[in-house]
């Protein structure tokens, strides 16, 4: 029985992160492919009851969940090239940037690819702002981790495939060579470094999935956008209601209603000069 | 008042912010001297904007000329840097992973529910959030049982990472209990956490740092507006 098992999915950037880290440390592991969209295995649900997600690392029968937690565990458990820097301040910086990547960059970039209309425009602007910040951190460095890849490079993996491929398919230009020369160089270095080159994500398979998703998304049509303001118990709720539909052969069919709500107390709203 | 000795660092924070409380707890545990600078979030200082240009938020811990942001990252920095004092994170890598996992759960999933409750409209919405908060507490109870391994605190015999990560919210948990009348920490549902909360609140190294629930209620009521007159 393998000592190390990884429950993951070929298409998940979070799962790929762990594979890169394990390979960096030369750890042998058994990979268990999960069908995360259709049917998660009973074992996955047993080992990750809180989030029910991949990746889950199983080491000597003990499960560890959440990719960033797993990366730190791998670094602390196995010898080999460091994933995190040794210096406490550099470690704090690395942790800061991976949090920034996961909490800010990834969601904005994902939305920039897969939303429509105004939501997409807003997401593209946000993604651009965040990428500018990232670009700034690469001054004079080959990788985020310095001369060799580290935790931030591993965490930034979604940029190379999960953002660049859809960007090309959808046809917008957020991360261009002209606007982000350092990030582009980083991507080339990252994709060319041996650990990544030897184990690339399946580009053709990913492209096919993205293409199918793009076709579904481009059939989506913005039907109506409405803004309503409601006051309830001294709290002001501003709701943006978006109705989306899907173009069929003869018609456009309503497929969903999305409500985006922002609430604040009346006194805050008044202070701000709002309604 | 005697002149202050060289402090080890500066902490930009807000007395009512549980994330600031977290850092204060860690600094207290390690007996680190620092200068606390209260920020006004409506009028952020130049220093805050310079040291946390990305998020512009508190807390920020400045050690010498190095600013560190994000409360859990600051705590780990403190633990990595001041190695003479008691350890905050457990020594075993698996226990460390558990501590990090649950701290992330508290920040990403559980505490946002308490904030959401404040803005909930209608009985149904409120009831749904209340249910989720209780479900989360049951998970945290299980985490307590696993992490404490039969001892008094998440960190075992001593205050540790999760004691700080969850303990910082005790003021707000009690304040919300006062404001909603709902007893979040209930002996019939989460006896482990009830016992833990009592121990943390009376721990000599911690209790002076935790903000008082009543003061938080006053702050919340004030900012929620007093147009209605008497509080509910």
Automatic annotation (TrEMBL), chain A:
Highest taxon, organism lineage = Eukaryota
Q: What EC number(s) has UniProt assigned to this enzyme?
A: 2.5.1.18
Which reaction is the catalytic activity of this chain?
Answer: RX + glutathione = an S-substituted glutathione + a halide anion + H(+)
The GST C-terminal domain sits at: 87-209
Q: Does the keyword Transferase apply?
A: yes
Residue ranges constituting the GST N-terminal domain according to the UniProt record: 2-82
Per its UniProt record, what InterPro entries does this chain match? Glutathione-S-Trfase_C-like (IPR010987), Glutathione-S-Trfase_C_sf (IPR036282), Glutathione_S-Trfase (IPR040079), Glutathione_S-Trfase_N (IPR004045), GST_C (IPR004046), GST_C_Tau (IPR045074), Omega/Tau-like (IPR045073), Thioredoxin-like_sf (IPR036249)
Q: Which SUPFAM superfamilies match?
A: GST C-terminal domain-like (SSF47616), Thioredoxin-like (SSF52833)
Asked if the record carries the keyword Transferase, the reply is yes
Matching entries from PROSITE patterns are given as: GST_CTER (PS50405), GST_NTER (PS50404)
Molecular function terms, GO-annotated: glutathione transferase activity
Q: What's a Pfam family in this record?
A: GST_N
Q: List the keywords (alphabetical).
A: Transferase
Family under the similarity heading: Belongs to the GST superfamily. HSP26 family.
**Which protein, by its recorded name, is this?**
Probable glutathione S-transferase
Automatic annotation (TrEMBL), chain B:
Question: What processes does the entry annotate via GO biological process terms?
Answer: toxin catabolic process
**What functional role does this protein have?**
Is involved in the conjugation of reduced glutathione to a wide number of exogenous and endogenous hydrophobic electrophiles.
In this protein, which residues make up the domain named GST C-terminal?
92-223
EC number(s): the record gives 2.5.1.18
> Where does it reside?
Cytoplasm, Cytosol
How is this protein annotated for GO cellular component? cytosol
List the molecular function annotations (GO) for this entry: glutathione transferase activity
State the similarity comment: Belongs to the GST superfamily. Tau family.
State what protein this is by name: Glutathione S-transferase
Task: Give the top-level enzyme category.
Answer: transferase
Q: Which UniProt keywords apply?
A: Cytoplasm, Detoxification, Transferase
Q: Which reaction does it catalyse?
A: RX + glutathione = an S-substituted glutathione + a halide anion + H(+)
* Pfam families recorded: GST_C_2, GST_N
Note the superkingdom of the native organism. Answer: Eukaryota
InterPro entries reported in the protein's UniProt record: Glutathione-S-Trfase_C-like, Glutathione-S-Trfase_C_sf, Glutathione_S-Trfase, Glutathione_S-Trfase_N, GST_C_Tau, Omega/Tau-like, Thioredoxin-like_sf
């Amino acid at each position: 029985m393998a000592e190390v098992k990884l429950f993951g999915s070929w298409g998940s950037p979070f799962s790929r992160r762990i594979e890169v880290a394990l390979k960096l440390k030369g750890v042998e592991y058994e990979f268990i492919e999960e069908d995360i969209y259709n049917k998660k295995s009973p074992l996955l649900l047993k080992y990750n009851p809180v989030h029910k997600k991949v990746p889950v690392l199983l080491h000597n029968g003990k499960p560890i969940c959440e990719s960033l937690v797993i990366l730190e565990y791998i670094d602390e458990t196995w010898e080999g090239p460091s994933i995190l820097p040794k210096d406490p301040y550099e470690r704090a910086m690395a942790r800061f940037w991976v949090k920034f990547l996961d909490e800010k960059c990834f969601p904005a970039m994902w939305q920039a690819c897969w939303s429509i209309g105004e939501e997409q425009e807003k997401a593209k602007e946000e993604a651009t702002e965040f990428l500018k910040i990232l670009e700034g951190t690469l001054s004079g460095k080959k990788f985020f981790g310095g001369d060799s890849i580290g935790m931030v490079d591993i965490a930034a993996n979604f940029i190379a495939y999960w953002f660049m491929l859809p960007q090309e398919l959808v046809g917008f230009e957020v991360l261009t060579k002209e606007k982000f020369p350092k990030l582009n160089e980083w991507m080339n270095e990252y994709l060319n470094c041996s650990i990544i080159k030897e184990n690339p994500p399946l580009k053709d398979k990913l492209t096919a999935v993205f293409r199918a998703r793009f076709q579904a998304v481009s059939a989506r049509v913005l039907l109506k956008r409405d803004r309503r303001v409601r006051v309830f118990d001294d709290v002001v709720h501003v709701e943006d209601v978006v109705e989306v539909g899907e173009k069929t052969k003869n018609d456009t069919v309503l497929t969903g209603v999305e409500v985006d709500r922002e609430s604040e107390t009346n006194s805050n709203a008044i202070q701000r000069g709002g309604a | 008042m005697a002149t202050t000795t060289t402090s080890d660092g500066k902490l930009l924070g807000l007395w009512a912010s549980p994330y600031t409380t977290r850092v204060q707890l860690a600094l207290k545990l390690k007996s680190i001297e620092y200068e606390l600078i209260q920020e006004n979030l409506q009028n952020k200082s130049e220093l805050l904007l310079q040291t946390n240009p990305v998020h512009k938020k508190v807390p920020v811990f400045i050690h010498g000329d190095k600013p560190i942001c994000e409360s859990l990252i600051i705590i780990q920095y403190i633990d990595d840097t001041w190695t003479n004092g008691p350890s905050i994170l457990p020594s075993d890598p698996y226990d460390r992973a558990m501590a990090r996992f649950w701290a992330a759960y508290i920040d990403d999933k559980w505490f946002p529910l308490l904030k959401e409750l404040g803005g909930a409209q209608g009985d149904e919405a409120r009831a749904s959030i209340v249910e989720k908060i209780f479900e989360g507490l049951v998970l945290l109870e299980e985490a307590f049982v696993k992490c404490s391994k039969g001892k008094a605190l998440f960190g075992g015999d001593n205050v540790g990472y999760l004691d700080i990560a969850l303990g910082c919210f005790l003021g707000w948990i009690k304040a919300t209990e006062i404001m909603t009348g709902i007893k979040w920490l209930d002996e019939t549902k989460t006896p482990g956490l009830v016992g833990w909360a009592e121990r943390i609140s009376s721990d000599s190294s911690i209790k002076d740092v935790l903000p008082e629930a009543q003061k938080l209620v006053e702050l919340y009521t004030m900012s929620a507006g007093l147009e209605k007159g008497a509080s509910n």
